[in-house]
Design goal:
The protein has about 850 residues and is α+β, with helices and mostly antiparallel strands. It contains 28 helices and 21 strands. The chain is about 60% helix and about 15% strand. A hairpin with a 2-residue loop joins β17 and β18. The longest helix has about 45 residues. The radius of gyration is 33 Å and the shape is elongated.
Length: about 850
Amino acid sequence: MNPREALSGWALLWQAAVLGSLRRNLGRAALSVLGIAFGVALGVAVTLINGAAVNEFSQAVRSLSGEADLVLRGPRAGFPESLYPQLARDPQVALASPAVEVEATLPGRDATLKLVGLDPFRALRLQPMLLAPAGMDEDDLLAPDVVFLSQEAARWLDVRPGDRLVIQVGLRARTLRVGGLLPAAGPRQRLGVMDIAGAQWFLGRVGRLDRVDLRLRPGVDPAAFQARWQSRLPAGLTLAPPQAAGQRAENLSRAYRVNLTVLSLVALFTGAFLVFSTLAMAVLRRRAQLALLRVLGVTPRGLVLLLLGEGLLIGLVGAALGLALGVGLAAAGLQLLGGDLGGGYFQGVRPQLQPDAGTLFIFFALGVGVALLGALAPALEMARTAPAPALRGGDVERALGRLHRAWPGLLLLGLGLLATRAPPVRDLPLFGYLAIALMLVGVVLLMPTLLGGITRRLPLPVAAPAQIAVAQLRGAPGQAAVAVAAIVVSFSLMVSMAIMVASFRQSVDDWLGQVLPADLYLRANQTLGSAFFAPADQAVIRATPGVREVQFLRAQDLLLAPDKPAVALLARDLDPARIGAHLPLLDGPLAPPAGGPPPVWISEAVQDLYGYRPGQIVHLPIAGRQHAFFVAGVWRDYARQWGAIVLERPLYRRLSGDDGASDAAIWLTPGATPQGVIAALRARLPLGRQVEMRVPTEIRQISLAIFDRSFAVTYVLEVVAILIGLFGISNSFSAQVLARRGEFGMLRHLGMDRRQIGAMLATEAGIVGALGVGVGLLLGWVISLILIFVVNRQSFHWSMDLHLPGPLLAGLAGLLVLAATLTAVGSARQVMGRDIVRAVREE
């Protein structure tokens, strides 16, 4: 045969065996395509959105640091400006540019505006793209009350050059004049730039700096310069390349981003199982036709290529559809949820969607790859089958008999259990995800053995159709195992996500009840900006009628490691002897040794990330000096993923000289009402209308709403898992019913009517659905334990209590069993409407 004839023969085979099969099973193939498309779309959307946010934030950091080689950064409270001349006079420094950087509070707005004070003459040399002289008045550049806004900030604030802008400092309003707009080539973030001296005076930071940008002389090694200076710097300051800030921001959202990506890949895995179940049943139904191809000269390799072609076509269409849907979801997600998908990591940044060809190719390849993987097992099984047995009837269950091996599934389950004990890799629970995948595949491989053992122990019903249904499951469990496996995979993933989200939400609700014991709470600024309670404001709060007791809190940050985001330092008015009434302790409290360092209490994240343990002596950088503290306990904190450390506020005031407060907890006198005290405080405090004042029930409602927004994507993934699960059940049962047309025809010849056959199939589907739901419920519970106690702990460093959403799980279980039953009955009616005699002849 010449090549042209061979190619023509393959074209005919492709058209008849592949395209013809897909046309005959168009509905089931479409469901498989949708399964692949959903998984690809979610992965693409999550990756593009977070990539856009990280890139935009990194670009903003580069714009602020300009052509600097290294950047000196301090905590939120800043550092003495006396460090600046020391660095500037270093012979290896070509240019040093000091900066003040504050998140400024705007009255009437929850979000803040980043205000940066720069030396214009030095900044023009170091950050030429940030401060372009064209269109800027030099007098305005040096004016103490003039601010230049980025294009994004001006759009957000709806202001123009010459307008007035009110900034809140403490509880006092200060007014700035908008001198102009920064170049359009600047960062797409909410940013205001002013003269550094004016910023220090205006923001109450005279003598303090937040950043010094350094450009080194040609030939100077930045790493060597950094190492030489780092040991000389006060505690808590870091000298690092500009991109380190962007890397810390990326690390801040990495766990959240990776978890969402993995959850989307779970949907893709479920889509691969849809392809497997579709093609497996299609191959079983066409065994005689495929065996005839072998007799006519098609080699086993050629048969594998033909069957893989079906999976390839499904994968190509599904992946292409998923890419288009994913880009659309990413654009919508940026508009609705922002660049952090509700996680709150990149506030003040407006990312621009820029689809990356590499990302799109990776997810396209993943979509095609999982479809081919789903088609591989049926193709290899058919290629290994001898043509003669396959041409005779009754060969289907023999082919599925190879699945009745328990040891591969048990081995994978054992490996999955071992993987749960492995530590995280770069703070990511990679082995936790591996454990989930191993357990899913292990249980799927065990399903034929489990189904056979369970059906053999089922009692025979009285009704004849039900008896035949049970006998069918006993005699041919292999086909039912495919349908059960589809239910187990989809339902276990639904159950695991439902339990994890419910457990987390309920744990947060319980935690809020523990950390909100007061009658009323005040917050100077929701985002820790420039607003705070000065000592005079604190005195006013204490003296307000109806106030019995006040506990103030000052929130600052500590940079304990240059490659990690800052830890929150919470200085609180508290009684160490009654620490359990102030903090939800998980370990402790321990009494510090007599004459030893004062106590601090750390959150779980600090324990995990830095290895601090109760009873340990640790050193923390406060006001530029290292101070020793005794770790007296570990407490649960859901508000700060990267850790929090609590210490007594009088001690913090003595060490830092900072007597401001960020928050206040108020206990009322008998007979006083929160509404009355709120009205009095608003009247007595400067800018009292701008202070956030809430009762605990309001805070709980707002916090749970924020939780739901943060888990919005997870809820979407849960809905997708339910849809894919329903697709899978419909796929498996409809294909199984079509594969048994000859059997139903024979039953009709033996005297059974359509209603009895429908009852028989409904019984089979009900039993199979119930078994699948039962196993899926157990497997989902196990996976939820991995998500709660391994994945979430290693990703976000907090623990939670297990809570089962009983009504939701019962509703989902009933829905899936009902879907299985209705699909089987509907498919039976479709088959019974065809020529039964022809079906028997084909058999």
